[in-house]
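Entry 14. Structure prediction run on the chain below.
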Amino acid sequence: MSSRPIADHALLSDRHSAALVTSEGSIDWLCFPRFDSPSIFARLLDEDAGHWSIRPLGPAEVRREYVEGSMVLRTTFETDRGAVELLDAMALGDSLDPHRLGENAPHALVRVVECTRGAVELDMCFRPRPEYGLIAPLLTATTGGLLATGGPARLTLSSPVSLDTEGGEARARFVMEAGQRLRFALQFTPLGRAPAPPYTPDEIEAAMETTRSGWCAWAVMHQAYDGPWRELVHHSGRVLQALSYAPTGAIVAAPTTSLPEQSGGERNWDYRYAWVRDASFTMQALWVAACPDEAYEFFDFITAAAAPAGPDQPLQIMFGIGGEHDLSERVLPHLRGWRDSRPVRVGNGAWLQPQLDVYGEILDAACRLHLQIGEIGPGTRTFLAGLADAAATQWMRPDNGIWEVRGEPRHFLYSKLMCWVALDRAVKLAPLLHADHRVTDWVKAADEIRTAILAEGWNEECGAFTQCFGSPDLDAAALMLTITGFLPATDARMGSTIDAIAERLTDARGLVYRYLPQTGVDGLAGDEGTFLLCTFWLARALALAGRIEQAREVFERAVAHANDVGLLAEEIDPGSGEQLGNFPQAFSHIGLVNAAWTIHQAEQEAAPRRG
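Output returned:
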């Protein structure tokens, strides 16, 4: 059983796959060659599922940071006899265009250790366990390192120190003195190809520098936001870029699977896929923290993957990062899970769920990008107009909602809202869609949805818009009524809803739950943590209501839970304050960027009035 705090990890990425590194210099999660590939190291989920560590042999004080403007991780170990600096990166490969960052990634992880003071004895343990820990590969020595063979991958370890191998594990102990620099690397080769030869030290140095400079060139070209929390916003933009899949522009919800929403619980899901729902949220975040090109890449991916959808064929809610539709879920019973949180799942059964909000997410994204899109081709015009038609005919159906509940479908308010958004945005886009003749029908359907939401979504006794039509239960998704423009934040009912959520749907720290699972709406046992995205929604809603100081306070409460390298998971444990859920979570970083932007805009609008 793995028990290390989720927040103890840092992210590495080559925009094809990802690794997580602990503060002790251990790679405890790595999937090659894609984010959703079976793991090479998975100690994150089971102590026996593989890792690669380089660390001082004795006690050490540790500090970590990303090299400025990059996703190259620097870990400094201070011992009583000396200090070493460990640089970790997933190699990006060469690219002349920062927009194509990672397009030539060689599927390699590079590590450089330098002794900066005194002398330090280090221990290295290389214990690959491909296929989520099922395989203990055969390790064979070769000039400059060793080869690991077994299963669908061949791994080449480059090592400047001699290794002792036994039982599918290679170890080394060595002393480094001030000024000494050692280089290590791990390369992936699929079965059927000749294994890659070990890198030379110069090749490792070049790969590290190319990766650092590649990230920095991307940041310089893309990151112009200059509002409050500038560094947090820029860093979140780099995290979102790190969670994107270079070949298609897809963005994974997180690079991990089965990190739980409750320690020891069953709410454990595989997030290594791209959700349609993320589209509109992501568009704005990428526009603020990156640039329209990345936003367009993601939109292009979503519309291509979802192209078969229309009024007669439901829109699938999520896809594989290569556009795959079948994401069948299965359990890995041999893995014990993080802190015994079982089951460990791969795949995600939510791909089969009906969720009506996705129509609004895609059309809202298209509306945000309409200046970038320019002329729309006939196929995309038909697709987008078909989504509006689907929203008009399906909005009154029950579904599984934004939170993908595994209980009975219901009439979720958010689903109705996003069908209204689909129609509202389609009307705005009608000239671009060559669909002016359909505007009357779309406006009529949007008005019907508005009437239903105002009549059935509002609960007088609660003094709030609630989770489902006729329900007394609160849901943070009701905050989207004002964020989407359905109601102004100054509307009395909206203000009352904001207050109800702030007072009755928060923990002792003031962080927001998405809903209260005790109601049984999600069909699952156990509880969950507070939801960082929902906390950022509250900050946005308060800012839109002109309550800027309160918005700032809520924002600060949320970002205070970022780890030492600025990463956020999905949830926060209401008791311990620990991060919970898959890590790092795109939704949380998207929420951070969008909330910072909304507060910045509200402050700018308020400034003339103050003057």
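Residues 258 and 268 are 4 Å apart (CA to CA).
Filed with the rest of this week's runs.
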